[in-house]
UniProtKB/TrEMBL annotation:
Top-rank taxon, per record: Bacteria
Taxonomic lineage from the root: Bacteria, Pseudomonadati, Bacteroidota, Saprospiria, Saprospirales
Protein species of origin: Neolewinella lacunae
Record-given protein name: Methyltransferase domain-containing protein
Gene Ontology molecular functions: methyltransferase activity
Domain Methyltransferase: 43-142
């Protein structure tokens, strides 16, 4: 999708997109920091948009790995399918349905979860449901990385995962945060 189309999609659906710009290369790199690409076989991405972070994941993903990319916008899902990578499963669905999509590919758990869902713009109950589903379906030791433009919903992750580390990414418009959570034993 072109930058102009992405901007228009963002304006049309601001409540679900939460932004009118896609993540910069610096933010994409921060979003996948800490992922053990050597061992990971199943990565779940929530709010994949047109695949800007997905491409970074696919570049480093094991040849036998899978990425399940959740996205609710049909237009953006078409862009994701156009990436044409057999390791990518496009879940045109809301992200609380992680279990269903893991079952579809025969996976017990996700090794890591990366999310850019704008929880601050979604109803709190749905946000908490998605974060809980992500935590419940993540393997122990796996990481959950969340991109945000504010720390307004940081408590969702602290309640689900315990301590959360944060990194400010200035090289993005607007400057962003990445929150790093780990599923402990
Ligand atoms: C801030 S954009 C991020 C797009 C891209 N990953 C990036 O980093 O630029 C958030 C995306 O989350 C999607 N989204 C919103 N609610 C969702 C939900 N409940 N389940 C899956 N995706 C959702 C929106 O359609 C939008 O494309």
């Amino acid at each position: 999708m072109s930058t102009i189309s992405f901007l228009l999609e963002g304006l049309r659906n601001l409540r679900t997109t939460g932004t009118i710009t896609r993540s910069s290369p610096a933010l994409c790199k921060a979003a996948i920091a800490g992922i053990d690409f050597y061992r990971a076989r199943v990565i779940v991405e929530l709010g994949a948009g047109d695949g800007v972070i997905t491409r970074h994941i696919l570049k480093r993903l094991h040849p036998e790995g899978k990425v399940i990319a959740f996205e609710v916008s049909p237009d953006l899902c078409a862009d994701l399918r156009a990436l044409g990578d057999d390791r990518l499963v496009v879940a045109e669905d809301s992200a609380e349905n992680i279990r269903h999509w893991l079952d579809k590919i025969g996976a017990e758990q996700a090794d890591h979860v990366v999310s850019a869902i704008p929880f601050a713009a979604l109803p709190e109950a749905l946000g908490r449901q998605i974060v809980t589903a992500a935590r419940d379906n993540l393997r122990e030791g796996g990481c959950y990385n969340q991109v945000h433009y504010s720390l307004k919903t940081k408590r969702y992750y602290e309640e689900a995962f315990g301590p959360v580390a944060t990194r400010r990414v200035w090289g993005n418009l607007p400057p962003a945060w990445v929150l790093y959570c780990c599923k402990r034993k």
